[in-house]
Design brief:
single chain; about 80 residues; 1 helix
Length: about 80
């Protein structure tokens, strides 16, 4: 086997290994970035849900005070 073929074969072999490692590392980085984006999206959704629950609780408290006032008026009318 000639020296040029031997060196070319080794270069292709190690080049392939290098490319596989490079692609795998890039895939891992992209996967981590996407996971971080998903977690941020879930966090935003959770924050909106909490805000909506607080708003609903405030509205229910207001309704409760109104109902108590209406009941009081109705008892006075009787």
């Amino acid at each position: 086997m000639s020296e040029a073929i031997y060196i070319t074969t080794l270069a292709i072999f190690f080049g392939t290994i290098f490319m596989i490692v490079l692609i795998r590392s890039q895939t891992s980085i992209k996967k981590a970035q996407l996971q971080a984006q998903n977690e941020e999206s879930y966090r935003a959704i959770a924050e909106r849900a909490v805000a909506a629950q607080e708003e609903t609780a405030a509205a229910l408290a207001d309704l409760k005070t109104r109902i108590i006032a209406i009941e009081k008026v109705l008892k006075e009318v009787e």
